[in-house]
């Protein structure tokens, strides 16, 4: 009868390889012996054993190594000759079990610290830092340039937050690696014992990664609930599920380094090319002629209008910072657009106002503050009105290029509730 | 340059080069170093692996045979010069010590 197996999802950083080794030893003491990597750490049930495991960082391995590559196998042979049984390797981690009492430590303490540091700050880690940094920068540029669209849209803000969180977490990893390396080197100079990890005396740290992961999942679910639009939530949840399935398939198949690298590039391209259009297509577009009754302001409310309405687009975005409503009314010969930004935060309205009145697009605008009884109101040469109240901004445009009378203004303000 | 990098050899480096004055399989070097040093110097397999790669890269040793993953090395002329230089340096240190203290 084959022995019982179990898979545990657990991750350790290269700077915590002694925590990793301690975890494996603790599992062996309970009768679960580490066999190999798969989708997670695979353990085989057996007799409880007081086993000493060593987890070393082999800096010549690659982050794309899903199984022991030739250089790792060669290194493992040296270790086996020294009394260490090689169990398995993945990426830069190599796992050994001590089989001879007289087995020599594989590396000096300083070499272990340097190897762990190199693992944390490898070319792949630097590349990730650069990519995340570039992505975060693009998100900042996009958000600043389209501030009025992004600030109230949870959907558009998600990639902004995600980009910044990814970049900052990678920066924190680097800072931690530098700090930990310096601290450990100082300890070596003082003749102190070096322990690569945090939980020599407390097991809490082994579960910290699980806690961080749990917190991220809870935050993500809360954010999805805040978005509240099932189609967007589905797109993001499906995207994450696809990423996870791909990771699990790669982890189980354990392809060679080159195949793994190629697969990630191809998958990444296909994923991005598919996800971006999917996100764009699924938009809050109540483009349905039946929705015209949802318009708070009809054209006929403020002027004579006898045409047939051909198209109505309504967009709503809202979050704790405020809301943005967009309405397009299209007839055969006319188009009326009005946007309403509502928020309690003056700085947001200031920023939107600054963007709205960009001098490049509004040269020659005429002041009409008195007409609107507003904090500020202008009409540009194209006939678009920008009106600022205490807690709202109205942008109003009618292709008829009319000068609104005070009666028309009163009707518009009342219908849109902007004052 | 190799000569600058290995101007002063560490103890493990010195004993590894001593072991490779005769052709030797990589995995056997640890035992050979232990024997030469009468059990005093123990070179870890990871330390050895990294050092062999550095030595080979800098022309201090050369690969003589490769059967699968088992590789054999021997010291080169440049390696011998470095070893001799280190030996001479250590001798000078011992003599200086003998004059003053011992």
In words, what does this structure look like?
- The complex is a heterodimer of chains A (419) and B (102).
- In chain A, 48% of the residues lie in helices and 19% in strands.
- Chain A is an alpha+beta fold.
- Chain A folds into 3 domains: 5-106, no CATH class; 118-281, no CATH class; 289-416, Protein Transport Mog1p, Chain A.
- In chain A, the strands form 3 sheets. Chain A has a 7-stranded antiparallel β-sheet. In chain A, strands 1-3-2 form a 3-stranded antiparallel β-sheet.
- The radius of gyration of chain A is 30 Å and the shape is elongated.
- The model of chain A has no long low-confidence stretch (mean pLDDT 88).
- Chain B has 102 residues and is of the alpha+beta class.
- Chain B has a single domain (10-100), classed as Arc Repressor Mutant, subunit A (Orthogonal Bundle), CATH 1.10.10.
- Helix content of chain B is 57%, strand content 15%.
- Chain B has 5 helices and 3 strands, in the order ααβααββα.
- Chain B has a 3-stranded antiparallel β-sheet.
- In chain B, helix 2 crosses helix 3 (29-36).
- The radius of gyration of chain B is 14 Å and the shape is globular.
- The mean pLDDT of chain B is 91.
- The chains are: A alpha+beta (419), B alpha+beta (102).
